Amino acid sequence: MLLMRENEAPRKRRPRGVELRESAHGSEHRCAYRVRFFDAQGQRRSRTFDTAQDALDFRGRLRLLKRAGDLAALDVGRESLGQFSCDYWRLYVEVRLTPRTERTYRYLWNRHIRGRLGGMQLRQITPMVVSQFISELRDAGVGVHSIRACLSVLQSMFSRAVEWDRARINVVKLVSKPRVPRARAVKPLLPADVEAIRRHMLAHRRHGLRDATLVSVLAYAGLRPEEALALEWRHLHESTILIEQKCVDGKILPGQKTTRPPRSIPLLSMLRADLREYQLASGRSQGLIFLAAGGTAWRPSDWNDWRSRAWQPACAAIGLATIIHTATDGKRKTRRTYRGPVPYHLRHSFASLLIHEGQHSLGQISTGSATAQRRCLPTTRTSSPMSPADHCCPASTRSKQLAPRSYRAREATRPGRMVGKRSRVGCTGSRRPSHRRRAPIRSWAESEVELPRNPERGITC
């Protein structure tokens, strides 16, 4: 038996399939255990451990993953969030999202996310790390809306990482997002205010008829601005309007804001008269209804210019808004501050009228929800819902007491007009279907030839 030299560390037994690497630093003796293997791409790799048991456990895990054909699970979550973002932009954002949403995502990524989480591995980002990220943004003075938008970007990135087997779990879903309390109450505009805005636009604007017609479409059809600007003449039917496309950055894209299929909404008589008048004045019956100055679709700059030059002065003229000009230090220009309703409030006004009648046509508003009930007009809120017959019949006493007078005057049409598909409403408010056949109507414009003269505007429908 050989005697060991003095100050020589005893040799350790090398486990099977594990390489033993010894090193000496002065009087200290160290041992490391290396395991070599082939990954899912066939490349030769290795990992080093401090103890033989850890190396044997990893070798056993390799054997199980190889049997299951899941060797790629060894590298799940090892890449950084910045490295993963390259595939995220190329495979998802540029293909699935709109250009406006892409610009918003890139701004949030470059401004708030990349500097704080871009260098961390996906598996290192835990719910605790996300909570600390929210706290850092709040301490930096970032608003609640921007914080929620950053969390939406992170949640979308981790959803794609889980989908592409780059992460095991979406940790952002486990973190509660900060709530956004509504700072101001939604105040829908009364139909009388809508008519006052229209009259001001017709009297003081070069494109007054176009602007007034756009207000009518927003107020009496409940369309979103991007849907109204993408509306074409072919979308106008006898008694409905087809919504199947939207205007985004001057381009007409199919679909709606949400991922729902195309929808149809009722075409009210006064809106049909406004569109008919604008069609006769413009001399166009094809293409987009509302065109920009160059004859193209509206861009965001055109919409912002319309809000500042047409909508805001009209609201200020009738007393619904205020425009404040404040002088800035060292500059000749003054700062313009607008405080008042925005064009999107017209959609709330139309929803309030539908809720008041017990109808549900917008598709995204539930008439029984608390949010929808809070959007009701204060002058039209009632305990019992009204029927369309009461709304359209000028002889109904209940409709005169509960509904705005200007809206009733505009909606009153000839006796016996069709409401929906199931009833024919006359002055008596009867819902019994009539067997009398009407004359065929060839188009939406010809359906209003026999309408009486509108006493409120002084135009022929």
Give a structural overview.
- The protein is of the alpha+beta class and about 450 residues long.
- It is built from 15 helices and 13 strands.
- Helices cover about 40% and strands about 15% of the residues.
- The strands form 6 sheets. Strands 1-2-3 form a 3-stranded antiparallel beta sheet, with helices on one face.
- It starts with 18 loop residues before the first strand and ends with a strand.
**What class do helices, strands and sheet pairing give?**
alpha+beta
User: Which stretches are poorly predicted, pLDDT < 50 over at least 5 residues?
Assistant: 1-7, 364-376, 378-431, 438-442, 448-461
Q: Taking strands numbered 1, 2, ... along the chain, how are they ordered across the largest sheet?
A: 1-2-3
Report the top-level CATH class of the domain at 191-339.
Answer: Mainly Alpha
